[in-house]
Amino acid sequence: MNLLVNGKRRVVLAAALGMAALLASCGGGDPVVAFVPTRVLAFGDENSVLTSEGRKFTINSLTTDANNAKSLDCSTQGIWTQRLASSYGLVFPECNPLAVSDPRSRIFAAPGAKVVDLVDQVDQHLGTDTFSSTDLVTLFVGQNDVFDQYAQYPGVPKDQLLASVYASGQLLALQVTRIATAGGKVLVSTVPDLGFTPFALNENLNTGDVSRASLLSELVAKFNEGLRVGIAKESGSKVAIMLTDELVQAMAKFPATYANMINVTEPACDITQAPTVDQCTTDTLVTGTAGAATVTNYLWADDKHLSPNGHAYVGALAASRSRANPF
Fold this sequence. Notes:
It is a single chain. This protein is α/β, with parallel strands linked by helices. The longest helix has 25 residues, at about 160-180. The N and C termini lie far apart (about 50 Å). The chain contains nine helices and eleven strands. The chain has one domain (about 40-255, about 310-325): 3-Layer(aba) Sandwich (Rossmann fold). Strands 4-1-5-6-7 form a five-stranded parallel beta sheet, sandwiched between helices. A two-stranded antiparallel sheet has the order 2-3.
């Protein structure tokens, strides 16, 4: 009988010790509270942009009214920031079809922006506002830095180009630290692997240099290295990094594992009907070698920008990463 009682006591004691260790690991017994942002603040380049009329830098969806007239439908096939915000029940003023009262999320991102422009965007925000512990601040930039450096090749040696993009990655990391120090919770994206874009594949053909796509991938990797090294010491409670480069690589290499993905090498938008990607709609798509393009079966909208399906997976990654991080 004593052995049974003592055995039960040992079990209870072990359970109590285990619970105490679990509570200690969570901060001295404080419950873990899920981070729920009150607004999303989007900084960066065109990948995060909604124009004032709701246009996106991907395939824009259309809606048809009772008179058979077509107009933009900004809420369908949203870009990654819309999908992230929506996962928290938030919207941006540029696309608010349900007329949500006083949407607080904001887009500071701008078409063509590079890292130095993001610095100005942050300055603009801080000129009239602050960052708070319930702000989810997204940073998606660097693509235009990489393309800008690539355009100088081979006139500028590769080592010099690599050094330049590395410095840009470190400058972005400084902004990560700046925002986190000011109180915001930061979700920063690596630059997508541009070596898999239709632009890169065409460069291999058009220049006669089959290493051009690989060079773009090298430049992206070096930028992302600078970013990672720069934020390595940043507190995980304030900063989350999402590996968009690895996601794009996976989608490009294994499209069959992603729903509806068929064509990962050609642009979906017909450049003769939509000279720029923001003008591209579901009515201006091509019939490619893998069949007619749709918003879901192509990875790329034009030769440099993701399709809505690509954005859907980036948005899902962003929502998952922001929840997994101990903000």
